[in-house]
Automatic annotation (TrEMBL), chain A:
GO terms for biological process: Mo-molybdopterin cofactor biosynthetic process. It holds the Pfam family ThiS. Belongs to the MoaD family. It comes from Adhaeribacter rhizoryzae. This is Molybdopterin synthase sulfur carrier subunit. The keyword Nucleotide-binding applies. GO terms for molecular function: nucleotide binding. InterPro entries: Beta-grasp_dom_sf, MOCS2A, Mopterin_synth/thiamin_S_b, ThiS/MoaD-like. Keywords: Nucleotide-binding. It comes from the Bacteria. One of its GO terms (cellular component) is molybdopterin adenylyltransferase complex. The keyword RNA-binding does not apply.
TrEMBL record, chain B:
This is Molybdopterin synthase catalytic subunit. It comes from the Bacteria. InterPro entries: MoaE_sf, Mopterin_biosynth_MoaE. Pathway: Cofactor biosynthesis; molybdopterin biosynthesis. One of its GO terms (molecular function) is molybdopterin synthase activity. It comes from Adhaeribacter rhizoryzae. CDD domains: MoaE. Its EC number is 2.8.1.12. It catalyses: 2 [molybdopterin-synthase sulfur-carrier protein]-C-terminal-Gly-aminoethanethioate + cyclic pyranopterin phosphate + H2O = molybdopterin + 2 [molybdopterin-synthase sulfur-carrier protein]-C-terminal Gly-Gly + 2 H(+). The keyword Transferase applies. The lineage of its organism: Bacteria, Pseudomonadati, Bacteroidota, Cytophagia, Cytophagales. GO terms for biological process: Mo-molybdopterin cofactor biosynthetic process. Keywords: Molybdenum cofactor biosynthesis, Transferase. Belongs to the MoaE family.
């Protein structure tokens, strides 16, 4: 399946776009997405943390993804 | 009032939003842009937000605070875009019947906001840019 991933902050610079269309196996989970992205873009491995958000909430590692999900890559946050 | 804005924050409007007849205290926190990081001069700060999730998380934090303290009203406004030294990046206002709860709730809100709300900032120095907290 193909998922759309929104990118922010440093991940936007590492991947070089603000949106990424990304190919994943059917029923892939958050862990698989993160491992795959870190393999394709090794600079992601150097970040303090990297989370996935699905439909405006932080996702758990075992959460299964679907093509309809609004997925975002969340590097370390630092508002305020 | 829970919002992300590209315009300069109107602090008085945030305070006005929490006025309540039952309030004996309004506590306000303003997070501002500092002119240096570890003694290195900062020229400008660029804030980026994942707007929809940021607003949702700020609302959740407001709800958590309201469950813990006798909050009359709470307002959280965060700025995004390019900010100059001294400008307000975030303004939080909380009204409660007595002052102690307003201090505690305000501190809880800013501490939690920094941990969970998807907002990023890039510090611009004379010799380059750095995404804050991105690397260990």
């Amino acid at each position: 399946m193909q998922v759309k991933i929104a990118l922010f902050g440093i991940t936007k610079e590492i991947i070089g776009a603000s949106k990424l269309n990304y190919q994943l196996s059917e029923k892939a989970d958050v862990n698989q997405l993160l491992s795959s992205l870190k393999a394709d873009y090794p600079a992601l491995q150097k970040l303090t943390s990297l989370m996935i958000a699905v439909n405006d909430d932080y996702a758990t590692p075992e959460q299964t993804l679907s093509a309809h999900d609004e997925i975002a890559l969340i590097p370390p946050v630092c508002g305020g | 009032m829970i919002a992300i804005t590209e315009e300069p924050i109107n602090t008085q409007a945030v305070i006005d939003a929490v006025q309540a007849d039952g309030a004996g205290a309004i506590n306000v926190f303003i997070g501002t842009v500092r002119n240096q990081t570890q003694a290195k001069p900062v020229i400008q700060l660029d804030f980026e937000a994942y707007d929809s999730m940021a607003v949702k998380k700020m609302q959740e934090i407001a709800d958590q605070a309201t469950a813990r303290w006798p909050i009359q009203k709470v307002a959280i406004v965060h700025r995004k875009g390019a900010l100059q030294i001294g400008e307000a990046a975030v303004v939080i206002a909380v009204s409660t019947p007595h002052r102690k709860a307003s201090f505690e709730a305000c501190e809880f809100i800013i501490d939690t906001l920094k941990q969970v709300v998807p907002i990023w900032k890039k510090e611009k120095f004379e010799d380059g840019d750095v995404w804050v907290a991105a690397h260990p």
